[in-house]
Amino acid sequence: VGILSGAGVDSKDTSGTSLPDLANLVEQGHGVIIGVSACTYCPQMYGHYFPGVADGHALVLESVVRDHKTGEIIEYIVSDSNGKTRDDACHRVSAKILEKAFSRKQRVSVVTNDVIW
After folding, report:
1. Rounded Cα distance, 56 and 72, in Å
2. Rounded to an integer, what distance in angstroms lies between the CA atom of residue 28 and that of residue 22?
3. What is the pLDDT of residues 7-20, one digit of tens each?
4. Rounded distance between C-alpha atoms, residue 81 and residue 89, angstroms
5. Contact 79, 89 (CB under 8 A)
6. 25-44 CB burial, b ≥16 within 10 A, e <16
7. For residue range 20-45, what is the model confidence (pLDDT) as tens digits?
8. What are the backbone dihedrals phi and psi of residue 4, each rounded to the nearest 5 degrees, phi first?
C-alpha cells in the first residue's frame, strides 16, 4: 500500500480475501498484488517448497482463465518480476497451485481502489 501510495495509486490491504474474490476484482479492472510461496507457485524457478523456508514473493494478478460453460476458474495469469528472461515474466498457473501458494503466505493482497484498466 505504501509503495503504491508513493506512486499516487490509492489502494487498500485486502489480506484474507479469497483468490476467486480477487479474480473478480481483476476482471472489473482493479490492480491486484498477491503474496505467494514462490517455491509452491513455480518450483522450476525457485526450487522446491520446504515448510519454514522464507520464500515469500509478490505477484501481480493479471487475468483469469475460466471454463466457458461453468465459469469455474481454471488458471490464473500472473506477472513475476524475478524472471531472468522475458518469457519468465508472465505465467499461467493452475488454480489449484496458485491457491495453495497464496494460502501458504496467509492470503496477503493489495487492491487498487480505482479501476486502472
Report:
1. 27
2. 10
3. 999 999 999 999 99
4. 6
5. yes
6. bbeeebbbbbbbbbbbbbee
7. 999 999 999 999 999 999 999 989 88
8. -65, -40
Q: Do the beta carbons of residue 97 and residue 18 sit within 8 Å?
A: no
Entry pTM: 0.91
Decide which of 83 and 96 is more confident: 96
Q: What is the pLDDT of residue 62?
A: 95
Q: From CA 116, how far away is CA 28, in angstroms rounded?
A: 9
Bridge partners (DSSP) listed for residue 58 = 35
89 phi and psi angles, rounded to 5 deg: -75, -30
